[in-house]
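Methods: example folding runs. The two proteins below were folded one after another, and each record is reproduced exactly as written to the output file, sequence line first and structure-token line second.
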Amino acid sequence: MKKIKQFLDYTSTQEEAVLTYHASDMILAIHSDASYLSKAKARSRAGGHFFMSNNSEIPPNNGAVHTIAQIIKHIVTSAAEAKLAALYIMAKEAGHRVIH
């Protein structure tokens, strides 16, 4: 009872917590890449590195918040198509990360 009374006394005398948000120049930055025909059955790989950074021309890496490494489901016919597929996969995932 003594501990409970101490806890209730403490909580009743403390001010309510207030969260304040301030706008910043922080952005979600993504590096992506792909490898062409690196897996059996004409499959390619896509990889992405998501990180928070400042809004500069070349955002400095601030440690990964999300990483993707997957096989591209569709058969691509060139390294350029593999890179475009990787960009699409990363952009789609970034949309999910920002919205949710």
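Second run, written to the same file directly after the first:
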Amino acid sequence: MSVPTPIITRYRWVICALIFFEITINYVDRLVFGLLAPELQKIFHWTNADITDIAFWFEVAYALGLAFVGRFLDRVGTRLGLALSLVGWCLASVLHAGMGTVLGFKIARFFLGLTESGAFPGATKATAEWFPRKERALVAGIFNSGSNVGAIIAPLAVPWLFLNYSWQWAFIATGLAGLVWLIFWLKIYRLPQEHPRVSSAELAHILSDPPDEITEMMPWPRIVATRQAWAFILGKFFTDAIWRWNLYLLPLFFSQHFHLDIKKFGPPFLLIYLMADVGSIGGGWLSSWLLKRGWSLNAARKTAMLVCVLFVLPVMFVTQVGNMWFAIFLVGLATAAHQGWSSNLYTSVSDMFPKHAVATVAGIGGTAGAIGAMSLLALTSRLFKTSSAAGGDTEHVYTTLFIIAGLAYLAALGGFHLCAPRLEPVRKSSI
């Protein structure tokens, strides 16, 4: 009598969907200020430098939060840690509605940055808990695409809320919407070993990777001392700066350079972030496809990252383009490439570190990314102030910044390869 084949459930993809929606909500809340910036500038008579300075304080708090949130998640667990993070950033988003000064918005952005810091380390940790290594790049691409879906929803929802209600309700409605996700998260999320909906066959698939060589909790200094950690740190430092500049200041750029009104933000930003969605999933799919064809982990990940780097380069010419839709296409190509890059960069953490250290490493790298973003925003503010003193022409400011955006990914890939030439896991002998 033959033994029946064990049923392989696919409940891990429900978890993937949960993480996807968490990142979607995160980005909707993060983008509200940038989309409203041209209108808030008119209401409160702010300068470009004021807008940049407000955005800067989000990054200060994000950097501080990421320095500690990874270890917090590794200690309290993904379920509780992400729940607390989401409640915090929903309340911080609503806090914006009570502000009316530059200082007030700096305070609100600070608390939003502090509480949002748990989103990506938590998503990365959940992926490491629920998926084998060969599926993680695809999963990272899917949950990372949630940022693009959030960036599609926000330009449609925020102008509508602003025009039909008020700028305050744009912050309140988007902030409170995230609490719906919390209900599903607390009801559904458990470790796969503890989940009643996971069959023994699926659990065996999830746990099919060789066991981690390092089983004890790695102290923070030991993590930072590894070359693998610095590969991720440099990758995040150079490229997060560009992505977050886009989130905060692209609406301002298109408003000033192409005279795009908030009523018409929807279609251009829809195209940009639809392209980013394709890039996010495509970048994760590419390295997974190469792995299935027998490529080494090192070659598959870095080939996918190199392809993304090459697709970013044309963004350097955006300010030289006279047609707005061609400029939007170039920006969309760069955002697609960034998201494909990020899918592989996030996956590299679980390629190189044991599961219990994944959130900590993701948090450290996120701090580096926030410091990079702070540096670029500080430079942007200085350039705007210098431009204003010289007569107010911002053309050369944007040209300089887009050239930096094009070259940053080359620097990131070079640093990543220098620190992790073979993309090997951390060994006991190396720490």
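Comment on the second run: The CA atoms of residues 37 and 51 lie 7 Å apart.
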